[in-house]
Amino acid sequence: MRNPFVMECGEFRASYKEDMALYKIPRVRYRVYAIIAFFAVFPLIFPEYYVGLATLCGIAAIGAIGLNILTGFTGLISIGVGAFLGVGGYTSAILTTKLGLSFWISFPLAGIVTAAVGALFGIPSLRLKGLYLAMATLAAQVIILFVISHWDSLTGGTAGMVLQRPSIGGYMLSSETGYYYLMFVILIFTAIFAMNLFRSRTGRAFVAVRDRDLAAEVMGINLFKYKVLAFAVSSFFVGIAGALLGHYTMIVSPELYSIQVSIEYLAMILVGGLGSVMGSIYGAVFITLLPVVLRGLIETLSVFMPGLEGVFAGLREVVFGAIIILFLIYEPEGLAKMWRNLKDYFKLWPFSY
Amino acid sequence: MTFFLQMLVTGIVVGSVYALVALGFVLIYKASDAINFAQGEFLLIGTYICLTLITTYQIPFLVAMVLTLVFSGLLGFVIERVVLRPFIGEPVISMIMATIGLSSLLAGIVHIIWGHETRVYPQIFPDTPVRLGEVVVSPVYVWSLIIVLILLAFFTLFFKYSKIGIAMRATADDQQAALSMGISVKMVFAVSWAISAVVSSVGGVLLGNINGVNSSMALIGLKVLPVALLGGLDSIPGAIIGGFIIGILESMAGGYLDPIIGGVKEVVPFIVLVLILMFKPYGLFGKEEIERV
């Protein structure tokens, strides 16, 4: 039995099985359990306001994991996440209010419909990449949003639609706490799915496509299949995030899914770390809390500097832009990499060689 | 028929502004392979500065315009130096996100300084309408078109004959070769950002004179993508022709289709974008060297 209080000084893998393990070091398993347990009791400890914020962070994290599967792992840039969130939200809204389906049916359907739409817009990715693909997805964003805001009979036009919170076994998830647990379960499922995806054949194929698509094709990976699949899987999670968000805020309307949202999601995976599942979660939390923290800061400062509230909207954009640029320049691999560096530092501390 | 001509003239004028902004976009792409999503914000900043100089400081229009251009040029220089230089040779996504971040940063600054409400330029061009046959055109339109055409001609000649213009083309062609011929590639990048900011702000000032100024003008930065792509991302004549085509298409769609499907005008350029991407991704005049898979 090893001394449990001694830090590891590195990861020494002796077999392929160890290399593929979800927990690279056995002890990590207990840390993960502890973190999950903390967030499971989170709503019981903290006031409702923080639970609401955590729910928003978690929903954003589900979407960010979805986008990261596409952009971070498969290397296909998408500036259309906002619209895909909208597809998910609207699908669920239409199915529950117009057709009277239960949330538990409409929710997976929202994911599937978004996956189908995503796959459709993913077809050009066979011929386009990099900048050209970014433009194609930008066009998707504009066109989907146009359809949503002009198909009045189905979507209610610019006014949007009103949704209900779901219920389970007669118990309405109308409280912040109830909805938090719904989000929590789905987030854990999403994160585990994504982590396992990249231990599987399909996920490895995605990464191969990212690293060099020609080489991947030579090795027998069907590019078309895997690129479209990446779009579909990614959009599925973005879609369920959209449905969750729609039922949480209880309203869907076109301006909630603007290109600004797409950019925010891209910023999340960038700040968190491209190609990292945990990174997506860190990034989602970071970007979601940024305006909240900024607002708090401004409210504190405005005691000394009146008139500061007026510039909040502008200041928020400035800080948002500056953070993207600074992360890109100083830590392009994001928060996930920072965290890894910190751990590596302490693994070797105090002997850094 | 008069309606058609009216729409055509509007389209040409708006298209000329698109051409100008797309020229700036293409210039940056050609020189440094960077895609500038902040083009719209360049336009916005130029417009607001010119407006402030005229209304707050009571400077005559021409002087204000020159000052604006000088400032825009400096801004382009500084931005290239501070923000974009670290991204030379980085993957596309870094470049795209960096300019998206830049656009958010600049838009935020504009909102802090000038707020959100629409402002109008004081009367600069005479307001007696000009008659061209049956079509009545406001002088602002005529002047805009003249100024844009002069600028476009100037830049075409500039790239063809001036020393720095030739250096820019050489850099776009082959950076390594240009470097070994003693061209300062960094200088070329800086100059292309400066020129890009300058032409965008001219476009912005003209558009501001036509429609008034507010922060939604930055959306032109997005519309410039279909324009540049239609002409071919690395083709300067392409940007000019693409600008006119998209401008006219948009105006026609606004005139004829808007009564049937409201707001279709805004989405037409992007439908064109999808069609180009599907059938001719290198555009009308672009170099056919996209890596196919």
Give a description of the structure.
The complex is a heterodimer of chains A (353) and B (293). By secondary structure, chain A is mostly helical. Chain A contains 15 helices and four strands. In chain A, the strands form two sheets. Chain A has a two-stranded antiparallel ribbon with strand order 1-4. In chain A, strands 2-3 form a two-stranded antiparallel sheet. Chain B is built from eleven helices and two strands, in the order ααααββααααααα. Chain B has helices spanning 2-32, 39-55, 61-84, 92-114, 139-161, 163-173, 175-180, 185-211, 220-231, 236-257, 264-279, and strands at 130-132, 135-137. Chain B has a two-stranded antiparallel sheet with strand order 1-2. In chain B, a hairpin with a 2-residue loop joins strand 1 (130-132) and strand 2. The model of chain B has no long low-confidence stretch (mean pLDDT 84). At the A-B interface, helix 6, helix 10, helix 12 and helix 14 of A face helix 4, helix 9 and helix 11 of B.
Please specify the SSE layout and strand pairing.
The complex is a heterodimer of chains A (353) and B (293).
Chain A: H1 16-20, H2 28-45, H3 48-73, H4 81-97, H5 103-122, H6 131-150, H7 152-155, E1 161-162, E2 167-168, E3 171-172, H8 176-197, H9 201-211, H10 213-218, H11 223-249, E4 251-252, H12 259-272, H13 277-301, H14 312-330, H15 334-348
Chain B: H1 2-32, H2 39-55, H3 61-84, H4 92-114, E1 130-132, E2 135-137, H5 139-161, H6 163-173, H7 175-180, H8 185-211, H9 220-231, H10 236-257, H11 264-279
Antiparallel strand pairs in B: 1-2
In short:
Chain A is an all-alpha fold and 353 residues long. Chain A is built from 15 helices and four strands.
* Fraction of helical residues of chain B: over 70%
The number of strands of chain B is 2
Rounded mean pLDDT score of chain B: 84
- Rounded to the nearest angstrom, the distance between the terminal CA atoms of chain A is 27 Å
The largest beta-sheet of chain A arranges its strands as 1-4
